[in-house]
Design a protein that fits this description.
68% helix, 50 residues, mainly alpha, rod-shaped
Length: 50
């Protein structure tokens, strides 16, 4: 019985870790997609937040 409880706990922990990892990866891709902009050719000016 103890083995089944440990296996269940590990399965749930791995599912939570997988979901957390997928969420982090989606956030990273979303940030990368929003910060990537085409500013034309030539001199690039640094972007400033006002």
């Amino acid at each position: 019985m103890l083995i089944y409880m440990l296996a269940t706990a590990m399965t749930v922990a791995m599912l939570i870790a997988t979901l957390f990892g997928l969420h982090q990866e989606a956030q990273r891709i979303r940030v990368k997609a929003t910060t990537k902009r085409f500013e034309g050719f030539g001199l690039r000016k640094p972007y400033r937040h006002y």
